Amino acid sequence: MNNKLIRLNLFVLFSILSFMIFFYVQEVAQERIIADSYSLPEQYQSFDLPRTIQDDRQNFTRNLTILLETAEEEQLNVLFRETNFTPKITNGKPDPSVDLVVIDYFSNEPDLRTLLNHPSAKHLSTQHLSTQHYTINYASFNNHPLIELPSFKEATKFVESQNSEQVSAFIESLTTKYNELYQPSFTVQDFQYTDYPETIILLDHRPVRNLIVISLIFFLLFTALWLFDNARKLSILRLNGLSCATILYKVLIKHLLFLFGSCCLVQLIFDPSIFLLNMFHQFAFFTVSIISLLCVIYFLCTTSFVENLNRKSYARTFIFSLYFFKTIAFVWCLASVLTLVELVNLSLLPSTYPDEFSEYAVFYNTYSGKNNHEVISIENNVLSAQQDRLYQYLEENGMLLIGTVSYFMEEKEINRKICVNVNYLQKYPIISVTGQKIAISPEETQRVFLVPERLENQFQEIKEHYLHGYFLDESQADFYLIRSKQEITARGISGKSLLVVDISTQSKFLSLNRSRKHLNRSKRYWKKIIYWTTTQSSLRFQKSKK
C-alpha cells in the first residue's frame, strides 16, 4: 500500500514539474513578445527637445504645431511614446498588487500592427491585434493620433527616416524656428537624443528557473529512493534476463509516458502558440529524468545491492544515507513555506493606518510611471490641462495629498521630503517662530520655504539648494523660519520632527523635508476601508461618502 502511494506521489510531482516548465516557457515567450513589440523598427531615430520647450505648457499646442509642420515640410513622420504604469482594474476596482505597463504611441500611423512590425516580432501577424490596441500579459500597447499628445514632458520622441541627412535637415529647421520664439539660442545639439536607447526591463526568471532545477533534483531523488525500496523486485527482473531499460519501462516509464502525453495535450490546448518551444523543454525534462533513473537501475542491478543490504554494516550505512536525504528533502519543503509564516503574521497584525485618515479613501492616478511621473509630479509643478481641472475639483472637495516618495528614495538628507497640499496644512497646521499658524493662500504665486530654527546656521545653503533645484530666482521665492519641534502625521512615519518645509503655492501643494533616521518602512498596512497603491508621485485621498 505504501509503495503504491509513493508511486502516486511521484506521478503528481511529475505533473507539477511539467506544468511548472510550461508556465515558465509561456512567461518567457510573452516577455520576448513584449520586448520585441516595444522595440521600434530601425528606421525610427530618436531626437529630443530642449527643456525650455518641454516645460512651456502654455504654448504646448503652438510648439507641437511647429514640430508637425516642420516634419511635414521634410516629408517625415514623427512618433511619441509614453511608458507608464496603472493598477489592474478588477470588477471595476483598482488592484494595487498588479501593475500593468501601458505603452502609448502618438503617431500618424493609423494601424498599430504596422507600427509594431519589428523584424523580430513576427508573432504580431498571428496575435489578436486590433488597429488601435494590443494587450499581452502585463503590457498594453495603444495607438493615438498625434494631436492627442498631452505633453512633451519626458515623452520619447522619434522621427521615421533612414536618411541621416534628412534627419539633420529636420533638426536644423526645428532649431531655427524655435530660436525665433525663445530668447535662449538653441543649438542643434539641444535637439539630439544623447541618452541610452529605451528598452523594457524584463522580469528576472532566475528564481523560477532555480526552483524548477531544484524541484527536478528532488523529483529524481524521490524516484531513486522509491527504486531503492523496490530493489528486490528489480533484482528478480534482472535475473529473468531483462535489460535495465526494459526494467525501467516495466516498473515506471510506461506510466510516465501516458502522463507525459496527457500533460503535453492539455498544455497544447491551453496555449498552442508555444507548442514547439514547450515541447523542446518538456522532452529535455523527460530525457534527463529517464537517463538519471537508468543510472539508478544500472547501479542496483550491477552492484549486488540486495545481497549487500543483508549485511548489517552495509544496511546500517544505507539506512543512515536514506534518512539523510529525507532530512534534506524535509528541510527544503520547510524552507519553501517559511514565507507563508510572515504572510500570516502580517494578516494578524493590527492596522497601522492613522485614525485621523479613517474617513478618507485613496484616489488613484490614471497613470504613474516613467513618463507620466513627470507629467503629474506635484513637486515639478507640471500638470496637463485635464489633470489641472481634476485636481482643482478634488482640492475644492477636501482632498488631502500626502506624498512620501522623495522621503523614501532620496539619498541626500536635504532632498528627503514629504509632499502635502494646502488642505493638509489647514488640517495639521505648522507653527511659525512667533507662535502663529502658517496660513498660505491658494492664490499665492510666490514659492514659500519654511526652515526650522535649528537649521538657521545652514539657512543660506538651504536657500541656494532649493532655488537651484526648482529653477527659481530669489524674487520668486520666500524663506521663513519656523519652530523646530513640530511633528507630522503621515502613513507609518507619524510624529517625527520636520526638517524643511517647501510650500508649492502655484500648484497648491506643500512639501515637508525631514530626517530619515526615524523612518519605519515596514509599517505600510491599511484598514480594509482604504484602497492604496504605491505610485511614483504620491497618495491622494478623497473623503468617503460612506
Low-confidence stretches are: 119-128, 366-386, 504-546
Strand content: 15-25%
Rg from C-alpha positions?
A: 32 Å
* Residue-averaged pLDDT: 71
First-residue to last-residue Cα separation: 60 Å
In DSSP terms (H or I, runs of 4 or more residues), the helix count works out at 17
Helix coverage percent: 40-55%
Work out the number of β strands: 15
> What summary fits the major beta sheet?
9 strands, mixed
Principal-axis shape equals extended
**Total separate domains:** 3
Helix-and-strand structural type: alpha+beta
Written overview of the protein:
- This protein is α+β, with helices and mostly antiparallel strands.
- It folds into three domains: 2-10 and 203-336, no CATH class; 40-191, no CATH class; 355-543, no CATH class.
- It is built from 17 helices and 15 strands.
- It has helices spanning 2-38, 51-55, 60-73, 112-115, 164-179, 206-229, 231-239, 244-270, 275-302, 305-309, 312-336, 338-348, 372-375, 385-396, 405-409, 422-427, 459-469; strands at residues 44-47, 77-90, 93-107, 133-136, 139-144, 156-160, 360-363, 400-403, 418-421, 447-452, 477-482, 487-488, 496-504, 509-514, 539-543.
- The strands form two sheets. Strands 7, 8, 9, 10, 11, 12, 13, 14 and 15 form a nine-stranded mixed sheet that branches. A six-stranded mixed sheet has the order 1-6-2-3-5-4, with helices on both faces.
- Helix 8 (244-270) packs antiparallel against helix 9.
- The longest helix is centred in the N-terminal third of the chain and has 37 residues, at 2-38.
- 25% of the residues are buried.
